[in-house]
């Protein structure tokens, strides 16, 4: 993994166009080829990124760029879609490379892992007639908890938490953005499942078209929870 702190400007071109004006940012070029552009804020979410399969190629800055102070240019191109991320670097403040090795992956706590297992066995709670595709479905930024298809074959990505907050909705939003680029899956619906979902998280999820699902852990284990029921 290469970590570069640089004064840079960034342009994304493809199915959408976006521009980041000149500022100091962190550029993360990972071993899988992906490039993430971070600011000193916004938690874990990058300002822009290119996910694999992609390729980074350095370019010589043009005459106008060089005269404006650009010292080097990175072009990162997605090998399937042709989308491109072009980074104009004016000054590098830090540049280091690190070998991280193989990551064992996220180890969920007992209750969250049980919720994932139980919901995978009870996918009808997500959508009647649904079928499980895979647990821990991989994306470039980590696995989404469940990938299922509804009775009509539409893909549904499910993120599971014990307590659902805004960070969890943001996490699922990023997964959905990446999964939606796969023509074999798109369009992908999102379900945010938790034992408890905070009001702010529910509002944000529904605003983004993500369905919320409250999980009764005891009921899923086949034990009466004591929660009052209508029937």
From TrEMBL:
InterPro entries: Endonuclease_NucS, NucS_C, NucS_N, NucS_N_sf, tRNA_endonuc-like_dom_sf. This is Endonuclease NucS. Residues 2-104 form the Endonuclease NucS N-terminal PH-like domain. Its EC number is 3.1.-.-. It is found in: Cytoplasm. PANTHER family: ENDONUCLEASE NUCS. GO terms for molecular function: DNA binding; single-stranded DNA endodeoxyribonuclease activity. GO terms for cellular component: cytoplasm. It comes from Microbacterium azadirachtae. Its main location: cytoplasm. Gene3D superfamilies: 2.70.180.20, 3.40.1350.10. Cleaves both 3' and 5' ssDNA extremities of branched DNA structures. Belongs to the NucS endonuclease family. The lineage of its organism: Bacteria, Bacillati, Actinomycetota, Actinomycetes, Micrococcales. Residues 111-228 form the Endonuclease NucS C-terminal domain. It holds the Pfam family NucS_C. Keywords: Cytoplasm, DNA-binding, Endonuclease, Hydrolase, Nuclease. It is an enzyme of class 3 (hydrolase).
């Amino acid at each position: 993994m290469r970590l570069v702190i640089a004064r840079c400007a960034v342009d994304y071109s493809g199915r959408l166009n976006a521009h980041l004006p000149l500022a100091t940012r962190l550029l993360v070029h990972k071993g899988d080829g992906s490039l993430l552009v971070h600011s000193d804020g916004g938690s874990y979410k990058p300002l822009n990124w290119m996910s694999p399969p992609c390729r980074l190629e350095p370019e010589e800055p043009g005459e106008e760029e060089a005269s404006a102070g650009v010292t080097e240019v990175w072009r990162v191109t997605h090998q399937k879609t042709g989308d491109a991320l072009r980074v104009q670097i004016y000054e590098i403040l830090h540049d280091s490379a690190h070998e991280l090795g193989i990551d064992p992956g996220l180890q969920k706590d007992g209750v969250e892992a049980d919720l994932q297992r139980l919901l995978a066995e009870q996918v009808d709670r997500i959508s009647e007639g649904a079928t499980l595709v895979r647990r821990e479905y991989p994306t470039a930024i980590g696995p989404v908890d469940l990938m299922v298809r509804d009775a009509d074959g539409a893909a549904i990505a499910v993120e599971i938490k014990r307590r659902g907050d805004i960070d969890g909705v943001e996490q699922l939003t990023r997964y959905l953005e990446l999964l939606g680029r796969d023509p074999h899956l798109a369009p992908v619906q999102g379900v945010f499942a938790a034992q408890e979902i905070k009001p702010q998280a529910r509002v944000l999820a529904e605003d983004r078209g993500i369905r919320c699902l409250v999980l009764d852990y005891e009921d899923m284990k086949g034990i009466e929870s004591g929660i009052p029921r209508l029937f």
